[in-house]
From TrEMBL:
The keyword rRNA-binding does not apply. Belongs to the IAA-amido conjugating enzyme family. GO terms for molecular function: acid-amino acid ligase activity. One of its GO terms (cellular component) is cytoplasm. Residues 359-432 form the GH3 middle domain. It comes from the Eukaryota. Keywords: Ligase. This is Indole-3-acetic acid-amido synthetase GH3.6. Residues 445-570 form the GH3 C-terminal domain.
Amino acid sequence: MNLTDDEEILKKLEDTTKDAACGQLEALRSILEHQSKGGGVRYLRPYLQGYDAPVDANTFRQAVPLSSYEDYVDHIDQMANNGPVDHDHDHDQPLLSVDPLICFFFSSGASTMKPKLIPYFDSKLSRAASFIAHQGSNAIHRRLFPPRQSVNKVLWFIYADNITTTKGGFKVMAASSYPMHSSKANWSQLVSCSSPREVILGSNIEHQMYCHLLCGLRNSDSIDGIRAPYAISLINVFSLLESKWEQLCDDLEHGVPSSEISDVVMKDSVTEVLGGPQPELSRRIRLICEEKNWGGIVRKLWPNVRYIRCVTTGSMKQYYPRLKRYAGEVPLLGGDYFASECCVGINLDIMQPPETTRFVLLPTAAYFEFLPFALDEINVGEETVDISGVEVGKMYEVVVTTYRGFYRYRLGDIVRVVDFYNSAPQVEYMMRAPKTSSEIITEKHLMSAVESFQRVIRKDMAAEISEFASFLDLMLSPKHLKLYIEVREGCKLLQEEKLEESVEILKRCGSSIEDSLGGIYMMQRKRGEIGPLAVSIVKPGSFDRLSLVAIENGAPASQYKPPKIIRNRQIVDFMERCIVVTVSLDG
């Protein structure tokens, strides 16, 4: 795209925010009018039967109940299996959308082993809304970093993921993989990627990551930027670099990827990129890595790089300090707020760190409602407000009615309204919403508690937390909350001879953790409704192994996020097998 096209897209974006309320009513009108064609969709019929078209926003919100994934799962299963739920006379009526079903997307949720299926319909209206969002995002990026002719490669840790097929013959993939798997796949969009497409299409995430890194090192002087979907992806990349740099240097020196790479097609394509032995390049990289000073390693290895870009908000915020250390002076750019179900908001100032990242809600992307939310209250109510009813400083769960078959759907994201851009709310992404009223802590509480814990063990034991998660065991009486903490290799906590000392230090940490777990937890703890907090230290690499298990179970590698609030017994059983020591914190 040229400069004129970019300015035109940015102007369109700007215009959509000027009368957000009007844009929202038009979005809802378009959705309901379209989905009422030919008798309409079966999901909406029981709620809107008897109302004259067009149905206005107030009527829609009063007649159609709030919904969650569970309300759609029977319809989704029926579409996936391509068979009717019942045998009544209208079984041919579309279930969720009048548009043709193309495929299913995996959700990126991580609290269970099995990801949700999100139907992807061929919706012209949705394509138009998505186009503005995605092209607007690209235009904002190009305005800050205009393309350069000689330094024009991106080290892009992108994975097409394995695709599966439903009983009804529909493909299932990550939303980010669709452009690479669709019949209209446009590989020219990835022409700047430093890796060949055989690496992107590979089937082994560890081998793909290694090959991406190897190709990026081979093109070290031409790398303009480094990209990945999420911060955790890049943390894994730099961990791989720390552990495999000698092998990478050997591969560059000999001009052939490691024998560990089992995919012949991928290996041959990388060999071609290497272009024969590179002894000088290998020597330069070896000298840098031999120092084992990983602070600012990005600029040392890629001297012309201008940016690193990935999502660093929400649960990804914990990785930002480590990523910043690797990045040094290279700017870390934030991502946008795009969900598998629809685009939600765009990041107009991608240079901001996660704590000040704001997303402008896109009035044409879907019809939005906002369910009030308070951190230390179990139930705030079921009454939503629309885009013009939100208040600065308040938190809400996002509710969407999309062009692709979700109606008053609770997205499961909590945002805080921080300002308005023209008339569109600017929001800060806070966390995932609690699933049920029995959940007594949120992701935000957990992250705050672990930060407090980190400060104590860094001071007393020189230990660095690399990953964590929690599980509330409701089967016990009283119920118990357990934290699983993974620390980096080599710290005192993992040394057998120091175990007793470690346990004593951990026991003293009780209050520093519990004080951060929020009002509901503290109230129930005082009443004796919840037992003493348990902290389990797990072996280094446990969460990495969990990610491989999740990917084997169908979770898309490109969208995998480590769970924070565990709700699945399979994951708990896995974590229990990884425990080094468990301490009950009574203090």
